[in-house]
Design a protein that fits this description.
CATH architecture of the largest domain: 2-Layer Sandwich
Helix content: 25-40%
Bound molecules: cytidine-5'-diphosphate
Radius of gyration: 27 Å
Largest sheet: 7 strands, mixed
Amino acid sequence: MLQKTSPEIGGMGHPVKRKEDLRFIQGKGNYVDDVHLPGMVYGQMVRSPYGHARIKSIRTDEATKLPGVLAVITGQDLEKAGLSWMPTLFHDKQMVLATGKVLFQSQEVAFVVAEDRYTAADAAELVEVEYEVLPVLVNPHRALDPDSPILREDRDEKTNHIFHWEVGDKQATEKAFQTAPVKTKLDAVFPRCHPAPLETCGCVADYNPATGRLTVWETSQAPHAHRTLFAIVAGLPENNIRIISPDIGGGFGNKVPIYPGYVCAVVASLTLKRPVKWIETRSENLQSTGFARDYHMTAEIAADREGKVTALRVKTLADHGAFNAAAQPSKFPAGLFSICTGSYDFSAAFCEVDGVYTNKAPGGIAYRCSFRVTEAAYLIERAMDALAYELKMDAAELRLKNFVPPGKFPYRSPLGWTYDSGNYEAAMKLALERVGYEALRKEQEEKRKRGELMGIGISSFTEIVGAGPAHSFDIAGLKMFDSCEIRVHPTGKAMARMGTKAQGQGHETTFAQIVAQELGIPFADVTVEEGDTDTAPYGLGTYASRSTPVAGAATAMASRKIRDKAKKIAAHLLEVGEEDLEWEPGKFYVKGAPSKAKTIQEIAFAAYTNLPPGMEAGLEAVHYYDPPNLTFPFGTYICVVDIDKGTGEVKVRRFVAVDDCGNIINPMIVEGQIHGGLTEGLAIAFMQEISYDESGNVQGGTFMDYLVPTAVETPTWETDKTCTPSPHHPIGAKGVGESPNVGSPAAFVNAVVDALSHLGVRHIDMPVAPWKVWKILKDKGAVE
Ligand code: CDP
């Protein structure tokens, strides 16, 4: 049980306002583009207009002649330095600047450096690239056809196939299907989408020839890992590289990979011996940096006639684009997709995934998602609805019948995960009650009689966050632990640094609250710093909702080390034995004599002025936390929609979100995370898709086509919670940031399909745009 702290201390559970917002709302944040260094110059990418083409020649002389231009770097120049290709985060390599062929529209072809941004942009237009256009492959289902072009000439394997991955018991699953009286099958695409953070990617690379030091300000969610990879790839000594991730305006997975722009800026700075800034435009970000999803999935469920599920079979085709740059832990080619049994107690399951190359931008990043859990949650939650239709059973009743029961945790899933804790029924029942489910079903029945279209969609997702236990989780070989270092100063104020890096999640507040909880130092007196590899302890960064499960745990553990030392000092000051002391947040007191006490501030002062004989001075600790397991947050979302028959427009009338992320550090921040994630889920479900035409032209490359919801399109989110602490996390917390993005798309789509189910509609692929709905209504004869 966590002890309650006063509002002044502001430990766990206090909805304190975010410290960082003071600077953000005043426009005083410090982002990469705010970095201005003396002598700084600017880089601009030249990009391919074609999806697949051979480069016949690149002429740079006109660009070089433009006054103010300092250099034009091509793939051939990088080749001489052995840097024209770089390793991706997932066992592949990627061109930094194209040599030979371009493989997707907007691929990086040359890098122009000039005294100012405008000259660099003008000069980029003067670089003449002669292309020979080649046949384009955009449909992943055609990737393995004999007449499709082989895209990657650099590989020994002359195929567009990247990997086959399977998990589960195939035979047991087949057997269950053979005897099952009820079977259902669903084909669903989770379309290619993009995190589109407000701030695009960029960097300032500053090589100092006098010291040999390279400092890179970078929009990176994982600065420590980037430093190591820079050292390995460029052969620079790691102690001479400093990566600083300053304030970041949203990442959502998009800022995990190393992009060619970073590498080119570093090369240019090493060459010119001047600081080089490179900042992407919005379209460059949408067209060339890490996309998400693009999973083409089939799920089959076997069940008995009463609706008890027995087996799940999943087959998926994963479109990875031109390079396999997916940011997944090394042992998981399809990320954590094998969480696809979801919240349900299947006795057998089998899941297989094949990855292929196409002429699209590389990526496969976890957009507000733990490595493909969003795809998994969407699939199982859509498939459970498909089964409900098959059985003519209510979608809520079917779920309640099949949930992993609370008494079965820790629960071993048939695909190999051990869920730490859960109470799915409680979350669902609360959501049903909050939304007024029974009354809504009656209303729907009446409306149907009147020819009106109303739908109710449920999603009871299970998440998997907190990568990860070092025995099976690494990225590019680096184990996925995380860290915290705390220093308590003589006056009782503290500084805490982590290996993570927030991009808007509020770590400066919540991690200070963890220290406040554990040490009783008011959260306002704890400064949290992340993102500078010179000062913060090594960690794998912030993505996949891993910060709280891993670095949050490290923060609690480092605090506890400090409290252990503080106890020894308190015993010395109070002249009693350690065993005579009790702790309450903020002080040690003598058992039975609460007035004989020493506050943490008094103890901190003594740590520098009046120590027990033989004790080292100072009050500091560092902890590297290797989680024993992941955490498994969950929730039930219920969406109510009305559909306008005339236009096909879907209006989200209600959306109730019940989340369970274990113990909550800051309820206000958690609610903010849920609002943001639901809004992104809404956008994915109804508005967004990065699609390609048959010539390889990207269709969602600007905000005119890739729509971002405003307050006008966004409904009021109704949030609630249950609390099932993680048994293995030091403060019982699970991650939460990605849950709403993971859980909501299925709720939206289920609601729309439910509204149209009486017409025989069983599935609609996202984005559920008005034209698609209207066309279905027309085809089904529901409108004139
Ligand atoms: O890794 P990332 O920060 O994106 O995700 P997270 O660990 O889910 O945390 C998102 C924000 O919610 C952070 O500020 C967390 O500290 C906060 N949080 C919380 O207050 N209580 C929880 N149980 C989980 C997260």
